[in-house]
Amino acid sequence: MARENIYQSLEVYYENLEECPLRDRQFNFFELVYVISGSGKHTVNENKIAYAAGDLFLISPNDCHGFDLEGRCEFMVVRFGESYIREYQWKSIDHIECLLYYASHLSGSVLTNRDDQQSVASLMKHLQQTLVADNLYNEDLKRHLVNAIIVIAARNISVVKPEHISPNADARILQILDYIQANIRQPGNLTIASIAEKFGISPTYLGSYFRNQCGESIQHYISSYRIRLIEHRIRFSDKRVHEIAEEFGFADESHINKFFKRHHGMSLKRFKTVGK
């Protein structure tokens, strides 16, 4: 399996190909691949899906992927590493966390909103022009365009729900999931009793309803989502443990460490060391 590295915090390429030069590639960075023209099959972690012009794919670190091209295809490729995430002062780091949290669940295009598809097409066209132009502030413009694409992708991914959610999920379960994500930093709002009261159903029914709709318990979903956000605070921000504990409603460092170790099998300090 070919493994590729990134040598700058942000790299942007235009590719015009008749066949994929490398298959079963694995990265140590994130890659956004936009299909300008052409069609074929995209394989991510052994999941194969058809692609066409206008699709945008997100490949996360350690994913294994490749393209089977049906004739000549054009792509815009955007690669960014952890340093890029740290460099940019996002108004809300949760944009990046949405990408990171749901990336492993996705094999298809991340663009689901038609207006956003048109916006990304325009942004990619301008981004392609920065590769051939040598104008003043060209690098700054390139970064602004990439950041806009990342935020749009995050907005689309944020509506992607649990991996095993029922294809016939009703509107109420989607509202419950949105409520959980919006209140993930207020644990008092995420007790079974609080959620049940918010949506006018009994606590007992809520548990079975959520499991039937999402394929996992509501407690597991909340804990997994909170764990992943904490992971990304450790990896992608300069916050200290006590600041992260305060942000997510833990009493102190000891409380968050116990929670993290119970669900993750290692302490926050160990996780931070391993992640470097």
Descriptive account of the structure:
Strand 5 and strand 6 form a beta hairpin. This protein has eleven helices and nine strands. The model has no long low-confidence stretch (mean pLDDT 84). The strands form two sheets. A five-stranded mixed sheet has the order 1-3-8-5-6, with no helix packed on it. Strands 2-9-4-7 form a four-stranded antiparallel sheet. By secondary structure, the chain is of the alpha+beta class. Helix 2 crosses helix 4 and helix 6 packs across helix 7.
Residues in helices, as a percent range: 40-55%
Total beta strand runs: 9
Task: Trace the largest sheet across and list its strands.
Answer: 1-3-8-5-6
In round numbers, the mean pLDDT is: 84
The sequence of SSEs as H and E is EEEEEEEEEHHHHHHHHHHH
Rg from Cα: 20 Å
Which band does the percent of strand residues land in? 15-25%
In the predicted model, the low-confidence regions spanning at least 5 consecutive residues are none
| SSE-based structural type | alpha+beta
**Please, how many helices?**
11
Query: Distance between the terminal alpha carbons, to the nearest Å?
Result: 23 Å
Q: What is the overall silhouette?
A: globular
What about the largest sheet? 5 strands, mixed
